[in-house]
Amino acid sequence: MEIDKKIIKKLVEALDELKKSLKDKDLSQIENSNVTKIEEEISGTIIKSPIVGTAYLAPEPGAKKFVEVGKKIKKGDSVMIVEAMKTMNHVPSSSDGVVKKVCVEDGQPVEFGQNLVVLE
Predict the structure, then answer these.
(1) Are 32 and 89 contained in the same domain?
(2) Are residues 62 and 111 in the same domain?
(3) Which residues on adjacent β-strands are paired with residue 117?
(4) CA contacts within 13 A on the Cβ side of 110
(5) What share of the chain is helix, strand, coil (3-state, %, to 5)?
(6) Which of 54, 55, 80, 100 sits in a 20 to 30 Å window from 61, CA-based?
């Protein structure tokens, strides 16, 4: 594999410019403000993925979704399906609540512990 020196040079220049632009800023304050924004966004009961797989928001293509923003759900209701190794695993709600946010899209790969749904 041949490395293009022009690309490497451009990358180094871009990094130098980034360093110069951030030189006077306190990065810890920037990071903390971003973490605070994320925490505010995710306040409420969070339903997480129990396994690695592919998330599906409906029981079959074209069918009505299990949950949508604003829908009331009860503890134990299916919020989505996570498919792993050709097995469809229903993900139940851990509590009663109103759906505040659906964090994944239909057909999206998900990791273990990834946020799926946020309830109020």
Answers:
(1) no
(2) yes
(3) 47, 102
(4) 29
(5) 30, 30, 40
(6) 100
